[in-house]
Structures are given as C-alpha cells and as structure tokens.
Design a protein that fits this description.
The protein is an alpha/beta fold. The chain has one domain: Glutaredoxin, CATH 3.40.30.10. Pfam families: TXD17-like_Trx.
Length: about 130
C-alpha cells in the first residue's frame, strides 16, 4: 500500500499502482508539482494542500489516499498533458477524484472535486471520513 507520503508523477506510475490495489476505494489528490522551495507553482493547490492533507489523516483505514503531481506549469497548461487526456481527463487542479477500484480496474468514479470544491470541509469530510462510498 502506498503511503500518503508517496507521490506519483506520471499516469503510468499511477495506473500501475491502481492495478496493484485489487478492490479498494481510492481518493487521488492531483496538484501542481512543487518548486525547489517546496511550494507548488499553483496557488490554488497551495491553498488546498493543508486542509486536504489534514483531513486525509483522519480517513477510514479502508480508504487509499494517493497524491499525484501533474507537472510544472508549462507542462500542465499543455492540452496534451497526460493527466488532461485519457482516463483521468482533468480540467483543473487541484482535483480530488474518488474512485472505486475493482480487480485492479477503475470500476466507478464516485466524485470529482475541482479547485475551490477542494476547500469545502463538507466535501472533504464526506470523502475521507464518512461512509460516503458505501
């Protein structure tokens, strides 16, 4: 199991990890990569980071929390960015994506919170703490 401190930075790495999970409820936190200072180039990502990480620490033990950096600013704004295309189809960051994985495959997208929705404590509580997935 990946710990919340493990950070993925490519779709391939993320898909490989998801495949290894078997059947699991998952929340993926997508955000802009950090600069050398440790701060993300994305100010919205920085604004949401502490509340997301703090709430994720209270998550149900059955819930897998995954962090994923989508790249630097120049990479992110490219419409061909691998996170913007394909299975994840992100439109903005930060994004919290709640999924049900079954047999190592994405079975169901349960919810997607984008930008300011990632600051909403009710949204975060519903995803990390409640039995919302059931």
């Amino acid at each position: 199991m990946a710990s919340a401190s493990e950070i993925f930075s490519s779709v391939k790495e993320l898909e490989t990890h998801l495949t290894s999970l078997g059947t699991k409820d998952v929340v993926i936190y997508f955000y802009g990569s950090s600069l050398e200072t440790g701060v993300s180039w994305c100010s919205d990502c920085d604004a949401s980071k502490n509340i997301i990480l703090s709430t994720s620490e209270k998550r149900r033990s059955s819930l897998e929390f995954i962090r994923c950096e989508v790249g630097g600013r120049d990479s992110w704004i490219d419409p061909k960015n691998e996170f913007r295309t394909g299975v994840f189809s992100l439109n903005s960051i930060p994004t919290l994506l709640a999924l049900r994985i079954s047999g190592g495959q994405m079975k169901q997208q349960l919810h997607k919170f984008e930008e300011d929705e990632c600051l909403n404590e009710t949204n975060l509580s519903n995803v990390f703490i409640s039995q919302w997935f059931d």
